[in-house]
Amino acid sequence: MNDRIILAIESSCDETSAAVIQNDTVLSNIISSQTIHEQYGGVIPELASRAHLQAISLIIEKAMNEAQKEFADLTSIAVTTEPGLAGALLVGSSFAKGLGLKLGIPVIPVHHIEGHMYSGMLEHPECTFPFIALIVSGGHTSIFLVKEFGQEIVLGSTKDDAAGEAFDKIGKMLGLGYPAGPRIDALAKEGNPKAYQFPRALIHESHYDFSFSGLKTSVRYFLQREFPDGVHDESILRDICASVQEAIIEVLIHKLLRASKEYRIKNIIVAGGVSANSRLRSALQSASEKRPITIFLPKLSYCMDNAAMIGFLGSLKLKHLGEEAFQSLQFTVNSRAIRTTRISS
Ligand SMILES: Nc1ncnc2c1ncn2[C@@H]1O[C@H](COP(=O)(O)OP(=O)(O)OP(=O)(O)O)[C@@H](O)[C@H]1O
Ligand SMILES: [Mg+2]
Predict the structure, then answer these.
(1) The domain containing residue 164 runs over which residues?
(2) pTM of the predicted model as reported, rounded to 2 decimal places
(3) Among the bound ligands, the one closest to the CA of 274
């Protein structure tokens, strides 16, 4: 069989990314993060679309150059079509359709959350089905049971804020800027995770749903009560960050391990932006040493939004569904959608 050489494009939120994948190997993965949103404390959709438009050609050119490929070498294009910001998704998908039409090659629509999910298999061919996946990102926190390719069952999801959103909103209260997850991670390294007790919502419930809005409210009241003028002591700030981080991570790991035990699944994938968290990674590592499970984590550049994971899933889709499934350019973007059934074209 001929090589699959895929150009992948990701533009669902505030990262413009392009990658080139040859079969299952990543030849390049260029990521440009939009910094314009920092001053607003969150992503402004209209500004995101404009920034994608400005960056996309250059990012694709860089990805092609680094992979040392010409457009004529490409056999298909994979692009994120859902979920995300509608205008941002349209920039990537319109570019992909136009290029696909010009080159006469198939365009594979890819679900962003499935992209995060299968990123756990990227560079880990030993990760086989079935697996349990915890997707923990800026917009999602869900546990999936994946029996085989495309057979994904959602066991539970957040009822309100995603874990990444909790990191970001609590970080904003602490004056840490946006996105605050990486800042909280860094500050927590030298903090005491037991200094303050914050709620672990739903931890003892038998289902796999999460809730992080109560934690956010609890931190808000705590700060208003204890530090009405703000937290000015660096060591207290470190303790608060460590305690908040611990409250989030404890719930995530508790539910994840219970799902793996209940369904008797040994392979576990943890992916999405929050999977970059150093405490989450080390806690997962020690949990796996004490149990008959293997935890697969994407490397850091595949945790944040990136086109490599989109191209990798595009490649898997081609392998499982065949090129004929992707001849139509009739797909459109879908801003909010979480898939619970079989992957199809
Ligand atoms: N080291 C870290 N510790 C905690 N959170 C982190 C860390 N690094 C990134 N994050 C969080 O990850 C989130 C970004 O992840 P990602 O880019 O996957 O989200 P998204 O694409 O906006 O949302 P989704 O993938 O759900 O559509 C942000 O909330 C950010 O704060
Ligand atoms: Mg994401």
Answers:
(1) 126-298
(2) 0.94
(3) 1
